[in-house]
């Protein structure tokens, strides 16, 4: 299959999925999010030994869910949008082989969440990452409220989510969000090297290790709660003001 805004490329058994919407800093609209899910599914169905997830260009991994699209969603529509994002993040998290997010540039909101659904994260020195949804009057809606505390601890996750912090790469590594940080011009080589190293490991044992680690996080009630709460915020004065302010390129004024 081919898609307009997502690419799936192969190098031996390594599948690379690239979100390719650089004009919107690879923000995920419906078409792109659906394509991302399909590309991940196709990579899994074709027995990828490693999945690499990245964004096109040097500016962004994924700048988040598409705010212009989300701005006028009803509660019901937002619920469906949240479910779709959860489905894609879950598909990445449950991918039957190791997954690596290559974060070169911005990874905010839904972009941060897709990176956190991956097993490993490499950041470039200029990367910025965070669950920044609060400034849009909403909460992380694709698993961030559950995966972020798991990675960085509860206090740090609350600081990041409550304040909408955008962590630089060095801080993200200190907090446990990036496993490693590399110079901007070395990130592609490092990603290829790490993917090749993973692809050479025994696949059944790797999958067993991944599944065993996942068992410790098998309680999905938090994810379900987040899905419902995310949708319920649409139509509130917070969400309307937060997203209108972004589209109008001004600071929000919350009541
Ligand atoms: N949704 C929709 N469009 C987005 C977007 C998003 N999440 N992030 C960026 N874009 C678009 C901008 O609207 C702009 O489009 P335009 O050229 O048609 O006006 C284009 O991408 C470039 O973004 P711009 O804001 O001009 O670039 P910048 O370098 O000044 O700032 C960011 C980059 C990432 C800091 C800024 O775009 C931003 O804060 N984006 C929103 C991040 C966010 O809150 N994500 C969470 C969503 S859940």
Average pLDDT, rounded to a whole number, is: 97
- Structural class based on helices, strands and sheet pairing: alpha/beta
What's the multimeric state? single chain
Q: In angstroms, what is the radius of gyration?
A: 17 Å
Largest sheet: 6 strands, mixed
Strand order of the largest sheet: 1-2-3-5-7-10
N-C termini distance: 47 Å
**Strand segment tally:** 10
Q: Could you say what the CATH architecture is?
A: Alpha-Beta Complex
Please trace the helix and strand order, writing H or E for each element.
EEHEEHHEEHEEHHEHEHHHH
The tally of helices reads 11
Bound molecules: coenzyme A
What is the helix fraction of residues, given as a range?
A: 40-55%
Q: Which stretches of 5+ consecutive residues score pLDDT under 50?
A: none
CATH class: Alpha Beta
> Number of domains in the coordinates?
1
CATH superfamily, called what? 2-enoyl-CoA Hydratase, Chain A, domain 1
Per CATH, what is the topology?
2-enoyl-CoA Hydratase, Chain A, domain 1
Strand content: 15-25%
Q: Quick one: overall form?
A: globular
How does the SSE layout of this entry go?
Elements: E1 6-11, E2 14-19, H1 30-45, E3 50-55, E4 60-62, H2 67-70, H3 75-93, E5 99-103, E6 106-108, H4 110-117, E7 120-124, E8 128-130, H5 144-152, H6 154-163, E9 167-168, H7 169-175, E10 180-182, H8 187-199, H9 203-215, H10 221-232, H11 237-247
Parallel strand pairs: 2-3, 3-5, 4-6, 5-7, 6-8, 7-10
Antiparallel strand pairs: 1-2, 8-9
Helix pairs in contact: 1-3, 3-4, 3-10, 4-5, 5-6
Overall description:
With 255 residues, the chain is of the alpha/beta class. Helix content is 48%, strand content 16%. The chain has helices at 30-45, 67-70, 75-93, 110-117, 144-152, 154-163, 169-175, 187-199, 203-215, 221-232, 237-247, and strands at residues 6-11, 14-19, 50-55, 60-62, 99-103, 106-108, 120-124, 128-130, 167-168, 180-182. Strand 2, helix 1 and strand 3 form a beta-alpha-beta unit. Helix 3 packs parallel to helix 4. The radius of gyration is 17 Å and the shape is globular.
